[in-house]
Amino acid sequence: MDHIVVVGSGSGGTMAANILRRKLDSKAVEVTVIDKRTEHYYQPSFYLIPFGYLEPEQSRHIDELLKSGVEFVNDAVTEIDPDERTVTLAEGDDLEYDYLVVATGHRLDPSATPGLVEAWQEGDDVYPFYHYEAALELREALENFDGGTFLVTQPDTPIKCPGAPLKLTMLAEDYFRRRGIRDDVEVIMTRNAEHHFGVQPYRDALYEIWDDRDIEFKSNVSVDRIDPDAGVVHSADGEQIEYDLYAPVTPQFGQEAITDGSPLADGSEDGEYVTIDQHTCQHDEYDEIFALGDCENAPHSKTAAAARKQAHVVADNLEALVEDKPLRANYDGYAACPLLTEKGKAMIAEFDYEDSISAPVESKLNWIMDVNVLPTVYWDAWMKGYDPLP
Asked: What Gene Ontology terms for biological process does this UniProt record contain (predicted)?
């Protein structure tokens, strides 16, 4: 019996495992998912929880999501040996595989920014909201905030959901207006790039919104360190940005099992990401290995929407490989980012490797789709391996 091992039970891994289980004969192919965590969080809720637009109970136990016939191993992966086709576990026995799907996602490392851990754990004005606990804490901090500088920064590393810092910034500005304290708050976001959003025509539409609402964007800012005692962010070029309430995006990297415990990322520019063919999602050296989502080096935006499309490509191509057929499924780089601009309004940015897809239009319908509809679709369809939306 062939054995497919899926490393990671995040969005990409869970979807891929469930699609594979549905497509392949359970008498001929065994599917195993490995993850050190048992709780699967709806990460798009992390920038909505602080404003009360989604309630905190946005997680499921992995056993609720995986189809019957998918084995779950609750353990940490420490090494992957693609030559021996083995996965080494921290506590259990090594697992052998015939085919491997890598979906390990990003590793958040707040210690990579000097002062961030201390500022978060010891103070009451710094909340790195990509962490669930910080998103919860930011909710109370916003309620108690009565004026000053609200600051959002981004790290030099790639990040999952590059639109999330913009969404948090715009929702915060709108929140301050609704509370009647907007005149007492300066709203600033930084990024170590020329623009706050990488894809046109959404970038220009966002600039118009930010100019109209007096949201300041500081370009080409590389965060060097945080001084929590002074309430100051120091940039690499010597600039100092003061804050009264600060929501930094944590630096993000590849998982150590990939970067240090396997050769799968050796071909990437920085050694952080599994190297794959950007269309087939197949590893560029090991034919029996596929990767998807935030852990690989295809030039797409790192969003659940991208992983959702890749999961079907990976499953289709793995099915073809198992059946000794040519790989025919191709991922076109599709990604989507609902850009929530204020309470009740959102713009949907959709794009692929070549071009933008949707128009840069704000609407109430887009808000309803993202806040009221998508969480249910995510849990009940996408994570189960079904895709009712185009």
From this structure: sulfide oxidation, using sulfide:quinone oxidoreductase
Residue 165 lies in a domain: yes
Length in residues, the chain: 390
Q: Is the peptide bond before 201 cis (omega within 30 degrees of 0)?
A: yes
Q: What is the distance between the alpha carbons of residues 11 and 5, in angstroms, rounded to a whole number?
A: 16
**Looking at the DSSP assignment, which residues form a beta bridge with residue 89?**
77
Query: Which CATH number is 53's domain given?
Result: 3.50.50.60
The 3-state DSSP class for residue 19 equals helix
Closest CA to 365 of 336, 340, 337: 340
Nearest to 40 by CA among 24, 23, 22, 18: 18
Distance of alpha carbon 158 from alpha carbon 143, whole angstroms: 30
How does residue 56 score in pLDDT terms, banded at 50, 70 and 90? confident
Cα–chain center distance at 249? 12
Q: What is the DSSP letter of 371?
A: I
Q: How far apart are CA 361 and CA 378, in angstroms?
A: 23
The reply to whether 154 falls in a domain is: yes
- To which H or E segment does residue 94 belong? none
When divided into structural domains, the chain yields a total of: 2
Whether residue 341 lies inside any domain: the answer is: no
CA 279/CA 294 separation, integer angstroms: 15
In Å, the largest CA–CA distance within the chain is 66
For residues 117 and 208, membership in a common domain is answered with yes
Beta carbons of 30 and 20 less than 8 angstroms apart:
no
Whole-model pTM: value is 0.95
6 and 96 share one domain = yes
pLDDT band at 111 (very low <50, low <70, confident <90, very high): very high
Q: Identify the pLDDT of residue 92.
A: 86
If one compares 12 and 270, the residue with the highest pLDDT of the two is 12
Range of the domain at 184: 111-248
Residue after which a domain boundary falls, among 220, 248, 276: 248
Contacts of 254 (CB under 8 A, 6+ apart): 104, 106, 107, 265, 271, 272, 273, 274, 295
What are the two backbone dihedrals, phi and then psi, of residue 329, each rounded to the nearest 5 degrees? Answer: -75, 140
